């Protein structure tokens, strides 16, 4: 018998590793998968805008878009790894992201900074909206996963505020 497998006093086999940990319900898995898909797409939409924006305040927006992409990248990794820790299999394949994203897709080509602001604020708010929509069910099933959502909701809402200020008028 390997070091990671022991017999309990009742004679049952017990694994002494993460395999005995918390297992996500199908509902929890699906909720986190929807968050994952939209975080992955937020990275893609953000980079598409980052590479193709032109116009007033280009440099500031160009740099800010990378901040959004970094948050989405870290968030998608954290959500996917949390899913694995709960014995769920994340799916970040392009076909899955393309099929299930809720984000509006930008057109190919140059994007005026003012249009990019609107596109990105909408993309961030949509991603946050997915997190808020699944939050209560996630929190009921696994408060630890809900804590992860809290962090990324706060970070992304702050970015939406930063970016939207580009087009706002007092």
Automatic annotation (TrEMBL):
InterPro entries: DPS_DNA-bd (IPR002177), DPS_DNA-bd_CS (IPR023188), Ferritin-like (IPR012347), Ferritin-like_SF (IPR009078), Ferritin_DPS_dom (IPR008331). It holds the Pfam family Ferritin. One of its GO terms (molecular function) is ferric iron binding. Gene3D superfamilies: 1.20.1260.10. Residues 30-165 form the Ferritin/DPS domain. SUPFAM superfamilies: Ferritin-like. Belongs to the Dps family. This is DNA starvation/stationary phase protection protein. It comes from Glutamicibacter creatinolyticus.
């Amino acid at each position: 018998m390997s070091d990671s497998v022991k017999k309990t006093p009742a004679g049952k086999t017990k694994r002494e590793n993460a395999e005995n940990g918390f297992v996500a319900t199908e509902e929890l898995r699906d909720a986190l998968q929807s968050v994952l898909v939209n975080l992955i797409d937020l990275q893609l939409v953000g980079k598409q805008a980052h590479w193709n924006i032109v116009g007033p305040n280009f440099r500031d927006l160009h740099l800010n878009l990378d901040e959004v992409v970094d948050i989405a990248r870290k968030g998608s990794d954290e959500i996917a790894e949390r899913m694995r820790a709960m014995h769920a299999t994340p799916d970040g394949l392009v076909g899955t992201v393309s099929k299930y994203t809720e984000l509006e897709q930008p057109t190919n080509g140059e994007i005026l900074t003012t249009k990019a602001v609107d596109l990105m604020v909408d993309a961030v708010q949509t991603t946050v909206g997915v997190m808020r929509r699944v939050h209560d069910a996630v929190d009921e099933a696994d408060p630890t996963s809900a804590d992860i959502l809290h962090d990324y909701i706060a970070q992304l809402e702050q970015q939406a505020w930063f970016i939207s200020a580009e087009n706002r008028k007092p």
